[in-house]
Design a protein that fits this description.
Layout (H helix, E strand, L loop, with lengths): L1 H31 L3 E3 L4 E6 L3 E2 L8 E6 L3 E3 L2 E4 L4 E10 L9 E10 L5 E3 L2 E7 L5 E2 L5 E2 L4 H45 L6 E2 L4 E6 L3 E3 L4
Antiparallel strand pairs: 1-15, 2-4, 2-14, 3-13, 4-7, 5-6, 7-8, 8-9, 8-12, 10-14, 11-12
Length: about 220
Amino acid sequence: MKRQLWSSAVAFMFGMWMLSGIALAGPDHDRDRDRWMIPEGTTLRASLETTLSTRTARQGDRFTATLREPIYVEGRQVIPYGSTIEGRVSEVQRPGRVHGVGKMDIAYERIILPNGDSEPLVASTRGTEGPKGTKVNEEGTINGPSSRKRDVEETAVAGGVGAGIGAIAGGAKGTAIGGGAGAIIGLADSMRRRGKDLELPAGTTLVIQLERPLEVHPGR
């Protein structure tokens, strides 16, 4: 009888020990899990560490950017501020000579966490914060400022100068002829020169949107 009671007591204590172990393991596992999924469509803001310009950049050039805001999932910070984003220039086009606009596509390749872990990054540019006149289209192409306003202003100035010279030379008729000739000269000179290059200086903020879910392991 005593042996039976002792065996029951040992079995009971062993069972309680197992249950307590399971109960403790559950919260720890949830709290310290090392796999987190950041959903598609999440926006990241990162500051360029490298200046990118259509004047100097070439396809394949590398760049880095630093995350400006941490990313949270379920109330937990899974990507800290200061994480590094790496990428490359995938396409670059200098502005033309007739209403030219510089264009650039950049591809994001990976994000590196402060603990040294890196994860593949599939994302696109949705905007920039900094350079005046810069726009991003639906495909993620970054477009520089247009030279249209400059061309119109320079043509108008040249036309005014020509009209003044014509007035001195031949009155009203000379004014008309001089103005037309000056406008043509101004337009030709404007067309001879390229438009303003797109430039994203170091420190420019890139607004980046995930195109696929991003899995990170912050606790690994």
